[in-house]
Amino acid sequence: MDISLDVGEYARFIGRFSLGRDSGMGSLHFVRLKVPAGILSADRLRGVAELSREFGRGYAEITDRQDIQLHWIEADDALKLFSRMDELGFTTDMCGQAFSGAGHGDVRNVVVCPLSGKVGRGVHNHAIELTRFFSGNREFLDMPKKFKMAFTACGTDCVRVEINDLSFVGVNHEGEEGYALMVGGGAGKTEPGPRIAEPMGVFVPEDKVFDVALSLVRLHRDRGCRESKSKARFKYLVDTWGLSRIRTHLESEVGPLEEIAEMPALSSNVHEGEGIQDDGRHYLTLPLPGGVTSAEQLETIAALSEQYGSGELRLTPSQNITFVDVDEPDALRGALWARGLWKDVTPSYYTSIGCASDFCGKTREVHAKELMRRVVGLLEREGVHTRVFVSGCQNGCCAHQLAPIGFMGRGSTYDLFVGGRLGMGRMGRRVATGLTPAQCVDAVRELVEQYREGGYDGFEDMLEHIARTVEVEKGD
Asked: What sequence ranges are listed for the domain Nitrite/Sulfite reductase ferredoxin-like (predicted)?
């Protein structure tokens, strides 16, 4: 007997929209809006504000992959919400965390330098093309696990190239612009554990970017481990196959790739504060600690972007929002100040990130974003500046190992890591375990006091010295 099911109005949402599972703050579901390349118009941001107010209690979060998350989503509202998102041109990722085994993996939002095309070479078109191709593409909705990509060509590690499955780093090779590849990175506990992406030593010209990305995503889909969720990330395949075999497979599909001797040096700058664009206009980054914002704030930001800029906004991998094409940055800053959105803060506020552990339920009080704010507040009062990354669990959503100061949640306590650094691919080391939130703040205060006793070139140099000398625990 043939059985057919009329999915009707559901059909256009299948594979393009999904609710994620929450387990805290009284929220059962969240939705993660993909923002291709992190680029938004003022009108689309207003649309997000309306969705936040109607479906998410007026609350929103900028994520470290340039998405926007809304919480407190009712399952009964899903179709209405998805329809509104579709009208605004948004999709979601597939949020496969609810499944116990391997599978249900998709390509996540492609992270891009937030000043792409404004400062240095534009790389965002590649990210937009790839996002449009993979979003809702049923051939790539059941991979062993999620796949993460990043692009930067500004000379900085503003997208954390070290912890993506595949990163494209802008280079100029013998007069031709293109990219160096890094593969197999990941910050989470899945095998083989936290892993810095490795340079493949090949040059990818602009016209081969799509084919290279497609080939490696397809390799993950077809040859990645499906027997164990803990071995299902691309980093496990890279670790077991090795770079030589990965390259051989890639070149069998896209043709020979020229070799490059070494990766370009990347600074750890993430475009915080204000700067001048290549066209002489300005950009101004609004710090949003932990990415937390509201419908009202988003509407204000949208209006000010039109009044003082071109109406275009950029979400950043540091959970902030950047105004671009600004002619009078001082006037914009004053307008933000008058509306309670601006205060003069240290670089730590721009560069520190925290995950949504309060909603996923991985931590008790105090949660990741709040702990990050407390530690950054201490550093500001002490006049010491560095980045702080706080993950709520071993999945490492906020790459706690890559910051000079990182915390990893374990329910009601945290482990402290020190000595990580962006741009150098240096993982921090665990130096304390089982700290209460108050003890976390005290531990950082003690580090500041140790630094002030002298003998170090800088605070981060001291943290790296501690990381080198501490006994490395198994699993770090």
From this structure: 27-87, 277-330
